[in-house]
Write a structure and sequence with these properties.
227 residues, alpha+beta, 8-stranded mixed β-sheet, 4 helices, 8 strands
């Protein structure tokens, strides 16, 4: 029987996020069960952040807020911060029941083609997004939360024309699992990750029939106050 592929891990300092990420994977699966032809994960960054925010609200009195106004640190041409604050927005704030664990999160999303046969760099677009969000997190005030976190949302896709795996469920699953092993080792996943490939949408094709979109992942990297 085909099963959902779910893989979650956080480092010790961010382990409080683990149950929220687990709830997030459950919500992605739930949505895919309700709408197998139109899952939540193949939309934009904001849609995926919204599901993660919903996961926090559904877990043990956690709270979340999206796109909230805050003060950020201005960057000067020398690529340093001059300490001046300006009004900006942060993508997501999560906080635990007792408020001891707080996560100010910036996010970027990349739709990344993957294939063991054709793609030379299966993480090029993901790495570009990860570098951009890492820079965004550096603009958050060091007192913004107990943790400042860069989230790289990755939506892998498999070309139907270029991959022998594309029209075979077992081969798609093998391709996903192979790619997943590599994805967990890239710098953007230094402090944690969560992946979900729902069984109902494992073979989901776009309207043009060019790609399969089997699932989604979130890569996690904390930016320390000294960085």
């Amino acid at each position: 029987m085909i099963e959902d592929i779910i893989d979650i891990k956080c480092c010790n300092k961010l382990k409080g996020l683990t149950p929220v990420l687990k709830k997030w994977t459950q919500l992605v699966v739930k949505y895919s069960e309700h709408w197998p032809a139109d899952p939540c994960y193949w939309y934009n960054e904001r849609a995926n952040i919204g599901v993660l925010a919903a996961a926090a609200w559904q877990y043990d009195h956690w709270i979340s807020i999206e796109e909230y106004s805050t003060k950020k640190i201005r960057k000067i041409p020398s690529n340093r911060r001059d300490g001046t604050n300006f009004s900006g927005r942060c993508d997501l704030f999560l906080a635990s029941k007792n408020g001891r664990s707080q996560f100010a999160c910036e996010a970027k999303q990349a739709v990344q083609s993957i294939s063991n046969e054709q793609i030379k760099d299966e993480f090029r677009l993901i790495n570009i997004a990860a570098a951009a969000v890492w820079e965004d997190v550096s603009g958050l005030n060091s007192a913004e939360a107990t943790h400042r976190v860069a989230l790289t949302i990755c939506v892998p896709r498999i070309s139907i024309a270029r991959s022998k795996a594309a029209l075979n469920r077992d081969l798609v699953t093998e391709e996903v699992c192979r790619w997943l092993v590599c994805a967990k080792g890239i710098p953007a996943a230094e402090h944690g990750y969560a992946f979900v490939f729902p069984r109902r949408t494992r073979m989901l094709q776009d309207e043009g029939g060019k790609y399969i979109f089997p699932g989604v992942g979130i890569l996690i990297r904390e930016r320390l106050r000294s960085q």
